[in-house]
Amino acid sequence: MALEGTLRDMSLGDLFQVFRMGPKTGVLLLAHEGERGVIYVASGQLVDAALARGAERSVVAAQDEAVILMLLWDDAAFTFRHDPAIAQRPVRMLHDAEWLVLEGMKRRDDPTQALPYHRITLDTQLQLSPLPSSAESGVSLDVNQWRILSQVASCPNLRTIGNATGMPPDRLTRIVAELLAIGLVEVVPPPRPEPRPRERRDAVMALTNAGHLNPALVGVAAGEVNGTDDVRSQHVGRSLLDAVMRRVRGL
């Protein structure tokens, strides 16, 4: 089955990460106004590419430059088709996907446009990616990128990172967009509201009915301790409820 969509749904950089995680082998076709792009992927790695323009399909760029120009598109329709024969195609790319993504971000006037599903502000909270996409490729970061990356774990938001590094907001936002694009950092999602007591009880019962919890523990987990229970029992109920709610939120 072909993978289809638009770059508004999934950026080209995200597609490269999907191919690597697969790992996928096949052909990625992209259409943007009067331009057509093709990227060949073998075992998750980019091996060749070309960009054509006009009705005559004249090739205007190939290999690395073709991919970089496609990374500058804000929107395009794409289709990825599995094709094991691409594994036999010679590798003509000079750089890996992370290097190309970073180069594409550097050429943009506003790199945040490449991340339509993220709105980066000084209040944006970041966290290090648990399994960064670039860990194995050894992508080279510049000094400013390392400075920001070193502050992510200790600073609650971009404003604090800017204060710690002395970096102006526009420069800070640009570099954060680059780190997001190659998967080294993630935006922390907003916290979910705590469920009300009845919602907790309903969630616990739903898990019990689905066979995820022992019915004997439901009363304690939902806070049903009677007046004869000691303080330790109440602590057990609280701890169990916390564990149950973590399970609920993880579903």
Short description:
With about 250 residues, the chain is an alpha+beta fold. Helix content is about 40%, strand content about 20%. The strands form two sheets. It has a six-stranded antiparallel sheet with strand order 1-6-2-3-4-5.
How would you portray this structure in words?
- The protein has 251 residues and is α+β, with helices and mostly antiparallel strands.
- The chain is 38% helix and 18% strand.
- It contains nine helices and eight strands.
- It has helices at 12-21, 63-71, 97-106, 143-151, 158-165, 169-181, 197-209, 218-221, 231-250, and strands at 3-6, 26-32, 35-42, 45-53, 58-62, 77-82, 126-128, 185-187.
- The protein has a six-stranded antiparallel sheet. Strands 7-8 form a two-stranded antiparallel sheet.
- Strand 4 and strand 5 form a beta hairpin.
- Helix 2 crosses helix 3, helix 3 (97-106) runs antiparallel to helix 6 (169-181) and helix 4 (143-151) packs across helix 6.
- The longest helix is centred in the last third of the chain and has 20 residues, at 231-250.
- The two termini are 28 Å apart.
